Amino acid sequence: MVSTKKITRRTFLRTSAFAGTAGVLAACAVPVAAPAGDGAAAPMMEDVTLRMVTHYGSPVRREFTTRVKDIFEATHPGVTVEVEVAPDIDVRWQTEVAAKTLPVMLWDANLFCEMAAQGVFLPLDDRLPMQTPPVDMDDYNVPTGAECMVWHEGQQIAMPWINGAPLLYYNVDMFEEAGIERPSDDWTWDDFVDVTKELTRDTDGDGEIDQWGYMQSTRWDEHFAQWIFANGGEIVSEDRLHTPLDTPEAAGAIEFLYDLRFTHKVWPLAEQMEALQALGIGSLFNGGRVAMTYGGTGGVGGFNRSVTDFTYDILHFPKSPATGQRALWTFMQNFAGPIWSEHPDLDADLAIALGGPSSQRWAGRTKIQVPIYTPAVEEDYATKPPENIRVVPEMFAEPGVQHLPIFNGKTEWLQTVFGGELTKAFIGEASLADAITSAVAEGDRILARQ
Amino acid sequence: MTSQPQTAVRPAEKASLFGWWRWRRIEGYLFIAPWLIGFVAFVLGPFLASFFLSFADWNLVRPPTWVGLEHYRTMFTNDPKYIKSFVNTVYFTVFHVPLILVVALFIALLLNRQLPGIGVFRTLFYLPSVTAGVATAILWRFIFNYHYGLLNQAIGLVGIDGPNWLGSTKWAMPAFIIMSTWGFGSLMVLYLAGLQGVPRELYEAAEIDGATAWDKLLNVTIPMMSPVIFFTMIMTIIGSFQIFTAAFVMTEGGPADATLFYILYLYRSAFQWLRIGYASAMAWILFLVILALTLIQLKLSRRWVFYAGEELT
């Protein structure tokens, strides 16, 4: 007897709901590789995709990563390197660490050492001699204080990339117009004030200052460290429990900067900078409104490409009258891969390629930063322009070069102390004394928690 | 006349009925299973996880360490920025909520007319509330520019020297309050719908009694609109406690923490400083504060919210 039972709407809906739910659950399931049988070889993956993430997306940096990617893929058939630029890398890596999908990444110092201490990174030692040519770490000038960014418990867990350092850029044309000769390498803070005063002027005669002698940011520790270190001060104590910005040396340096803005008025106020930026003058130095600016060594390549309306050059920082010295801090970046990599040899090779001699030389030639590979500094980076590029290797050759302090909780500390409390004085919302007091108090409070 | 015989359910039928009911229940769960799975995985799970994390110290790198009530203690006794962020948020809420409610109601009253082209105006007034938060924040940053911003240029025409809105600790918060008012469109739409529901007869009766426009507003419109106003007030208070995008884009909490809002500080604690446990504790405190405020408002609503059809006490 043939069944004449019809499919009712309810039956249809019931079946569809069941099938839909089963489909959703199946889609969420994680595929599990079939286990190899006894004696059988594991199945070979013919095509491998590696991931690499960086947080710099400038055209030059993209050119760098594309170059390394192309060379790596050419020398590693079957391997594809996916390069990603993640401006929100501070948030991004957290997700990747939690999911254990961390790729080969470009790292800053602030978080790297703490993560290294947790064993997050892939050892590179076995792969270094396997490169063509083999990589000799003796040629790498890892700055004092940054060892944890390269080694952990005797193993090398990252490939050093660059050494960043502060630089003093100046507008040669403005100096010449004002009849000021290039300052000597031994100039002092007092000379600096005199020069900036001469360069601060009303150029169009409307009664408003529209050209200033100097400008810098107050956002990070690096913006103050140069001056504080030169004056004999420190930004954090040796035991990382205290923020000694209230010592005469440190406070004296901060007051020097404060006076540039509010006493000598050679540094535009925050609202003046904001007004100029609203007019589309993104960078006051590039826009010809500021004669000297505090920048980083990474700016040389950028200025070589972008500064076309005037001639720029670089200067040694002036010496502190208290110590007769200037100081140099550095910060290092590196490349590292994760310990849980599915392709540890390939990820290690990629990290090494990114920081290897060939990449270092390219970085030196383009001057996107100062290479850590010593031959690349001398033979590639230290070439004109600018005219006095010799300042950079001379800076690194001076005694006392140290990496900015690295410690747990540093991000919160520096954002609170410098970008928060000290900046209040520099935007006119607090007296300098109060700002230093609160910066020390807040800094100590944060350090005590670590 | 026959009556329906009462049929007792025999055991076999009972079993069948029970099976049928059970299958109906399973069917229902199957239908809602996708949503239920998502809710558990993405809402309830993280909700419970954040509760336990609020009692632990965790920075994503080290394993979580139990610290008990330490985060809650720190918040109220050893973190001036936390107190500052809370005070800033309350300051913003106290001024933002009444202002936006009044502006939205006022515009809704103006637009509650049958005029040619009224739809165009309703659309124009609604548009700001659908623009992206980041784009809005960037736009207002230009509007508030001290030297060249539209606002200071406009008030300069009448001889007022505008302040440095976003660069002054005194004026930054008023700037945010002004800016946040431009998103009144969503409330306006709700009020328009509410106004459409006020019976015409009530206005006619009031006119017969000699009521002026103001009398009608106070004694007819607002009481009849009170449920809608109550709803929008609760939702606006909840929303204002969670202000984030504008501060993140425009001032990053500055100048000098003048616009350091609660959620912005929570975000920094969690995602910039990796104090996941502390941020979780902050989130729970915010939840409790908003819950308390909502319950208080519910309690107070009995005095002034009138629902049509309920007896007047």
UniProtKB/TrEMBL annotation, chain B:
<keyword id="KW-0472">Membrane</keyword>
<dbReference type="InterPro" id="IPR000515">
    <property type="entry name" value="MetI-like"/>
</dbReference>
<keyword id="KW-0812">Transmembrane</keyword>
<feature type="domain" description="ABC transmembrane type-1">
    <location>
        <begin position="86"/>
        <end position="297"/>
    </location>
</feature>
<dbReference type="Pfam" id="PF00528">
    <property type="entry name" value="BPD_transp_1"/>
</dbReference>
<keyword id="KW-1003">Cell membrane</keyword>
<feature type="transmembrane region" description="Helical">
    <location>
        <begin position="123"/>
        <end position="143"/>
    </location>
</feature>
<dbReference type="InterPro" id="IPR035906">
    <property type="entry name" value="MetI-like_sf"/>
</dbReference>
<keyword id="KW-1133">Transmembrane helix</keyword>
<protein>
    <submittedName>
        <fullName>Sugar ABC transporter permease</fullName>
    </submittedName>
</protein>
<feature type="transmembrane region" description="Helical">
    <location>
        <begin position="90"/>
        <end position="111"/>
    </location>
</feature>
<dbReference type="GO" id="GO:0005886">
    <property type="term" value="C:plasma membrane"/>
</dbReference>
<comment type="similarity">
    <text>Belongs to the binding-protein-dependent transport system permease family.</text>
</comment>
<keyword id="KW-0813">Transport</keyword>
<feature type="transmembrane region" description="Helical">
    <location>
        <begin position="228"/>
        <end position="250"/>
    </location>
</feature>
<dbReference type="GO" id="GO:0055085">
    <property type="term" value="P:transmembrane transport"/>
</dbReference>
<feature type="transmembrane region" description="Helical">
    <location>
        <begin position="171"/>
        <end position="193"/>
    </location>
</feature>
<dbReference type="InterPro" id="IPR051393">
    <property type="entry name" value="ABC_transporter_permease"/>
</dbReference>
<feature type="transmembrane region" description="Helical">
    <location>
        <begin position="270"/>
        <end position="296"/>
    </location>
</feature>
<feature type="transmembrane region" description="Helical">
    <location>
        <begin position="29"/>
        <end position="56"/>
    </location>
</feature>
